Amino acid sequence: MLAAFVVFILAHEAGHFFAAKALGIKVSEFFVGFGPRIWSTQRGETEYGLRAIPAGGYVRIVGMSVLEEVDPEDIGRTYREKPFWQKSVVVLAGIAANFAIAYIIFIGLFAINGMIEIQPVVNEVRAEMDGTDQIAPAALAGLKSGDEFLSIAGESTETWPEVQSAIAARPGEEVDIVISRSGQQRTLTVTLASVGAAGSDPSGYLGVAPVIERVDVGLFSSFGLAGREVVDITGEAYKTLWNVFRPSSLLQLMKGVFGEPVPDEIRPVSLVGIAQVGSQADVIGVGTLIAFLAVFNIILGAFNILPLLPLDGGHFAIALYERITHKQADIQKLIPIAATVILLMVFIGFVSILLDIVQPIQF
């Protein structure tokens, strides 16, 4: 699992590497890992090698920074001298590689496993709330396996996400649940429980699991379904990134360093956590594990396209600015932004490793 993630990060860098090579831009280094150099070899004009920390890799493309001094013999083959479209291809190629990998993975999953449909129908009624001896609201209300949700608190529930949303939005409230049981419509009144980690908003809880069905879709339909999945998860990725990096979340993560619980929705995962997820493949299933790999690629691509230095999106934003204004960007003014982004990434990395060690991910 961990090796797969390193490969995906390297695929991102390889996208930059091959794009630059194809456009005649000099690439002086392609290394696996970071930190002290373990081994390297020179092949043509590029040095390939290994570094001590196997957490991805990097390529050094000559002239990507205006602060870099360029050897006179490299003039004409630097990134900074190339037209806008070539710069765009180079900086976006890594992002494209990650989205392409995710798309291919989802095509395979849909073609082999079909599509999972979650029905707004009760499959299981939990007798007690997790971690307590309290009877779950669903059991108290008399819900049974096979009951189909029609509405909750007056809201139509034609899909399972609508059921989840209607329940989550009403912690501690008494609501009317309209169901269909054996072809007959019934109304049950239930007081939803209120659950949630410390420091996070409470959420309503009923205590039911839905009916999950697998539907064969075929190879042709898999192409469209995979594309839609990539788009949907990309949207969710940006919501997650916003949740993690907003000031209130960063404060909660800081508290997590001192032992306070961190809500799952803002908890970052490190390579330690990724290895933990991989070790639980027998619990979460191989299909889910493979889908997790696709999601990682989407998050990696979505994060890197943000228009902030030193991310790829930051380099693209600079190239676009220079193309529109016909002026060279003042990189000196952008250094504080780049430093802030790097500090945030280091902080998130530190917190994620700490949490994965003291609060291991469990399924």
In short:
The chain contains 11 helices and 10 strands.
The largest pleated sheet is described as: 4 strands, antiparallel
Residue stretches low in confidence (pLDDT < 50, at least 5 long) are none
What's the CATH H-level homologous superfamily of one domain? PDZ domain
Give the number of DSSP strands.
10
Task: Give a verbal description of the structure.
The protein has 363 residues and is of the alpha+beta class. The longest helix is centred in the first third of the chain and has 30 residues. Strand 1 and strand 2 form a beta hairpin. Helices cover 49% and strands 22% of the residues. The model has no long low-confidence stretch (mean pLDDT 87). It has a domain of 100 residues: Pdz3 Domain. It contains 11 helices and 10 strands.
Key terms for this structure?
363 residues; alpha+beta; Pdz3 Domain; two-stranded antiparallel sheet; 11 helices
